[in-house]
Amino acid sequence: MKAAAVYALKADYPLAVLLEVTEVARSTFFYHQARKHVADPQAELKAAISGEFHAAKARYGHRRIQSELVKKGWQVAKKTVLKLMRVLGLECKVRRKRKYNSFKGAVGTVAPNVLNRSFDAERPNQKWVTDITEFRVGDYKAYLSPIIDLFDNAVVAHTIGTSPSLDLTNESLRKALATLTTGEHPLVHSDQGFQYQHPTWRAILGEVHAVQSMSRKGTCLDNSVAENFFSHLKEEMFHHDSYDSIDELISAVNEYIDWYNNVRNSTKLKGLSPVQYRTQALAA
Q1: Residue 4: pLDDT above 80?
Q2: Nearest to 133 by CA among 223, 42, 24
Q3: CB-CB contact of 112 with 213 (8 Å)
Q4: What is the Cα–Cα distance from 78 to 123, expressed in whole angstroms?
C-alpha cells in the first residue's frame, strides 16, 4: 500500500515530497497512520485460535479449532476461524497416503463380507474393524495393527512392531478381546490379508464366539473406517516430522493414539473425543 510506503520513508524524506510522488492525499496518509495505533479488535480471538492450533500440534483444521473454541465459550463462525488462520499463516498438515498391502492370494479361509459397509454401531464392542499400515524410518519399517470400535471410532487396542507377522495382528486382537465383558461377541472386520485368513486368527475369534467378516478383494471402501484412521494418523503425526529411530516412531504412535482416543474431537461424535463420547453415551 502506498500509504505504508510513505510511512516507512517519512523519516528520511520530506512528507510533502513523498505524498506528491506517490499521489497519496494528505488526509489518506494520516488516516492510515492513525489506524496503526488502534488495537486489533480480534487480537484475543487470534491468540485463542493460535493456542488451539499449536496445542493440537498443527493437526486441527478450522472446523475442529472452531469446535474447541465453542466449547470454551467463544461465539465464532467456521468461516471467521478459517479467515484468521490464513491471516496467521496457520495451515493444517497435508495428507499423504502410503498403503500397505497384506494380500497374498487365497492362503486360508476367506470370510464373507458380513459388515457390508454398515459402519454404525448401536453400542460399544458390537462391531470392530482392523487393518495394518506401514511406516518407513530411514532403511527400516514399522507396522501398526489397531482394533477400532465402530461405536465411537476408538482404538480399543493396538500393536506396533517391525514385522507384519501373525504375532502382530493376533496380539492386537487378543488385547482387544480382553476388554470385553460377559455376553459381548463383536463382529470383527478386516481385509483379506494373509494374517486374517490364517487359522490362528479364526481360532482366537472362535474362543469368544466373535463373528468374522472380510472386505471384498481389492475393495478398500469396504474397510474405509480403518483406512480413514490411518490417513489421519499419517497426516497429523507421521508426515512432515522426522524420526531418528523406530523406537522414537513407536513412542510417537503410542502418544498419538492416546491423544486420538482421549482428546481429539470428531465432528461425527458431536465435537467430542471417542472416550468423551463413550462416557457420555454410557452415562445417559
Answers
A1: no
A2: 223
A3: yes
A4: 31
SS3 letters across 197-210: HCHHHHHHHHHCCC
Phi–psi pair at 26, nearest 5 degrees = -60, -45
Which among 209, 130, 124, 128 has a CA at the least distance from the CA of 164? 130
Round to whole Å and give the CA distance between 69 and 28. Answer: 37
Question: Which pLDDT band holds residue 59 (cuts at 50, 70, 90)?
Answer: confident
Q: Is the pLDDT of residue 103 over 60?
A: no
* Cross-strand pairs, 158: 146
Whether residue 282 has pLDDT greater than 80: yes
- Least confident residue range of 56-65, 72-81, 104-113, 235-244: 104-113
- First-to-final CA distance of the chain: 58
Task: Give the whole-angstrom CA distance, residue 224 versus residue 251.
Answer: 26
Cell of 203: 481360532
With cell 467463544, the residue in question is 74
pLDDT at 52 over 90: no
Q: Which residues in 162-243 belong to E strands, given as ranges? A: 187-190, 211-214
Q: What is the pTM of this model?
A: 0.69
Per-residue burial over 35-68, b if 16 or more Cβ lie within 10 Å, else e, is: eeeeeeeeeebeebbbebbeebeebbbbebbbbb
Q: Which residue has the cell 463373528?
A: 211
CA atoms within a 13 Å half-sphere pointing along the CA-CB vector of 147: 26
